[in-house]
Amino acid sequence: MKFFNLVIAFFIPFALAYIDGPCSDGSGWCTNTSTCTSKGGSYVSNKCPNDPADVKCCRKSVTVNGQSGRCLATQSCSTSTLTGHCPGGNNVKLCLDGGGGGSTTGAAVAREVYNFFTARGWTKNAICGMLGNMEYESAGLVPTRNEFGGGGGYGLLQWTPASKLQNWATQNNLDYTKTNTQCLRIQYEFEGKYVQYIATNACNLSFSAYSKSTRTPEDLAECFARNYERPNAQALQNSLATRKSYARKWFNNL
Fold first, then answer.
1. Which CATH architecture has domain 106-253?
2. pLDDT digits over 65-92, tens only?
3. Is beta strand 67-73 parallel, antiparallel or unpaired with respect to 92-96?
4. Strand partners, 98
């Protein structure tokens, strides 16, 4: 019995030591899945290898007074942080974005995207559905965002490979890091010059019909995720609520 108790005492601290620690790709923090979802985050698997099965990498973006960022373990943050805006212990803080792309905060980027597409006849609902995906994909509406973990994606919509956006921008004498350039790229795709958006059975709206839709921003966030981003089924399930909440946030604030 003494040996058994010693084994338990030895292994439990090790198993729980990684709670609130960094994910292996630096994209969030490790915590229980129930804690993550109850606090408005979304989680991904296989990023917290030293933890129990119910501990996964939680990701959550936050905007405070026009400053956007992502909740991270402090070891993963290379910029300034804010305390008190993220769930978790003292090691989890809001890591502020470095900005870039002409607009320097999530709110400014959202306004720039909104103005661009409003001028081209898109409904507010459609723009906010797309913004919900942009915020999720770029972890806080950061046009210069490289994909966490080195997966090759880049920008507001994580064009993959990044050269898809970069080469097109160079050919058109544009700066691919700018929000306006990335909006122009979406417009290029919208005009059918490159097929990225593909209507699915789950959301049978063409790109043109999407842009004119007055369905709820939550519905259109899901449509954009399914038809444009097209993550795998598990990734979509884990992220959909967050994409929708971001879409509603921008609909209420723009």
1. Orthogonal Bundle (1.10)
2. 666 778 888 887 766 788 888 988 888 9
3. antiparallel
4. none
Q: Is 112 a catalytic residue?
A: no
Residue 171 to residue 177: CA distance in whole angstroms? 14
Per-position b or e across 160-175, b if 16+ CB within 10 A of its CB: eebebbbebbeeeebe
Catalytic residue among 112, 137, 218, 222: 137
What tens digit of pLDDT does each residue of 151-207 get? 789 999 999 999 999 999 999 999 999 999 999 999 999 999 999 999 999 999 999
* DSSP for residue 101: S
Choose among 94, 125, 155: nearest CA to 222: 125
Cross-strand bridge partners of residue 30: 57
| Residue with token string 């290379």 | 78
What's the distance, Cα to Cα, between the start and end of the chain in Å? Answer: 63
Q: What percent of the chain is modeled with pLDDT above 70?
A: 87
Q: What is the pTM of this model?
A: 0.65
Q: Are 32 and 60 contacting, i.e. CB atoms less than 8 angstroms apart?
A: no
Q: How many CB atoms lie within 10 A of CB 119?
A: 8
User: pLDDT for 14-61, tens place per residue?
Assistant: 334 478 888 887 788 899 999 898 888 888 888 887 778 889 989 888
Range list for CATH 1.10.530.10 in the chain: 106-253
